[in-house]
Amino acid sequence: MEISALSAQATTASGMPGRTASVSKQEFLQLLVAQLRNQDPLKPMDNQEFIAQLAQLQTLDQMENLVNVTQMSLETEAVSQSLALLGQRVEYQVADGDTQVGTVQRIRVSGGLPILVVDGQEVMPGNVVGVSVP
Questions:
Q1: Does 67 score more than 90 pLDDT?
Q2: Helices 47-83 and 25-37 sit at what angle, rounded to 10 degrees?
């Protein structure tokens, strides 16, 4: 029985960036405060422009929350899928490209991602190429 879906999920969970390359919420707020501090008192910022910038700040905050929740969900999914492998015989690839077979004895979680312990050896779920009943 092949478990390519588990491999794809684990890769997705570990490959997902925690922060985009765009401006963070703190940086955006600092820019907004600097703009307000340095504006011409005779030509203050337009109210609509100010409201638009506050809306952008709120949107940025909500997007960061969504990324965090999605990351946690992917990590939970990967751990749940790995738990289904407890007690199962798995075939997995090792560093030199060969495959080995062993029984999943326990699951260890590190950095939110599961690591299978197969006959005393740590195996990433993405390296599993087959599963069978012991």
A1: yes
A2: 170
Phi first, then psi, for residue 119 (nearest 5°) are 50, 45
**78: nearest Cα among 4, 11, 18, 127:** 11
Pairing state of beta strands 128-132 and 113-118?
unpaired
Every domain of the chain and the residues it spans: 4-132
What pLDDT does 72 receive? 93
For residue 44, which amino acid is it?
P
Distances (CA, A) of 46 to 21, 28, 36: 29, 18, 11
> Is the pLDDT score of 21 beyond 70?
no
Amino acid 32 reads L
Residue 80 structure tokens: 């749940």
Stretch 109-128: mean pLDDT: 94
